[in-house]
Amino acid sequence: MIEAVHKQLMSELDRAGRADTVFVISGVLFNILVLFVNWAQASSVANGRGNLMIYLLFTAGSLLVSCTSLLALRNSRRICTDLHAALQKIYTDSNVAQYLPPGLSELGSRRFFLSFLVVGGTGTLAILIPALQMAA
């Protein structure tokens, strides 16, 4: 029975990792698209030729996608922490915990922090750079 529980926990960890990858890549790619579109729109709007509504819609889209990605990452971090604790308990009860590398959970926390930084950073840049271009 322990093997089935272990398999299920590992499956959930794998699923969480794949979901994180999807949200990070989607967030970053969308924010880069928004950066380029809004940068072009900001230049046009500043010269009186662009469409402010397109600029605002893409900005709102960037906020929505970034916030959704960050919330999904936060939720995934909580799930992974709980799963790691359950796996640690199984390994301790089975007397194999000493074979786990020390600081394994710290690496996961660092990965989540970097994912937050990448998605949040590209979202911030996608909004600030065109806004500064329009203001100039």
Q: Can you describe this structure in just a few lines?
A:
Helices cover 88% and strands 0% of the residues. It has three helices and no strands.
Beta-strand portion reads under 5%
Summed over residues and divided by their number, the pLDDT gives a mean of 91
Task: Classify the secondary structure makeup into a structural class.
Answer: mainly alpha
How many strand elements? 0
Please tally the helical runs, counting DSSP H or I stretches of 4 or more residues: 3
Q: Radius of gyration in whole Å, from Cα?
A: 21 Å
Strand count, sense and barrel status of the largest sheet are: none
Stretches where pLDDT is under 50 for at least 5 consecutive residues are none
Give the SSE string: HHH
Protein architecture, described:
The chain has 136 residues and is mainly alpha-helical. Helices cover 88% and strands 0% of the residues. The chain contains three helices and no strands. The termini are far apart.
Characteristic key phrases:
single chain; mainly alpha; 3 helices; 88% helix
Which helices and strands occur, and which strands form pairs?
Elements: H1 2-46, H2 52-93, H3 104-135
